Request: fold
Amino acid sequence: MSRYRGPRFKKIRRLGFLPGLTSKRPAPKSDRKNESQFEKKSQYRIRLEEKQKLRFHYGLTERQLLKYVRIAGKVKGSTGQVLLQLLEMRLDNILFRLGMASTIPGARQLVNHRHILVNGRIVDIPSYRCKPRDIITTRDEQKSRTLIQNSLDSSTRTKKKTKVPDHLTLHSSQYKASVNQIIDTKSVGLKINEFLVVEYYSRQT
Reply:
């Protein structure tokens, strides 16, 4: 299954706020009361929707997400928490969390167009897994810096300025950031039950 490119608001109406997909928020529950007032969700649907939240927030294909679940399952520790750490340490997600892009698709475009360097080298793979002590910068070109600055300015103008999580440090005046450590899953910017995602895949195999 390919990466979703359809209407974004359609997804957040069904799944709730997905900040990585769009900055828009779904209508308040009271406005959608008639739609779900008498609807009782099955356990399968609950697990499916949690999986879909993860997939659409991080902008993954079904195959990519399944691959991450399998990798997480081979690592010592909670599979669900390791899964979130793997996804959060992707380069496109880190650019989003820094406020250098307003959405993860926007961050992916920055990387694909070779505007981003990691440790002084251009990286054009959005799924690149960042590590502690990595230094992220933009190319020393006006176009690259303008794109980043526009996103940072947009974040400042919104009601809530993007809060950079503790595992990252942003030096906005230098268009530079550093990865301090692996993210604590309590700092993940998405309301998600990752254990239900793991359970969903375990029941599919």
Summary: Strands lie at 116-118, 121-122, 135-138, 168-171, 176-179. The first strand starts at residue 116 and ends at 118. The mean pLDDT is 85. The two ends are 17 Å apart (CA to CA).
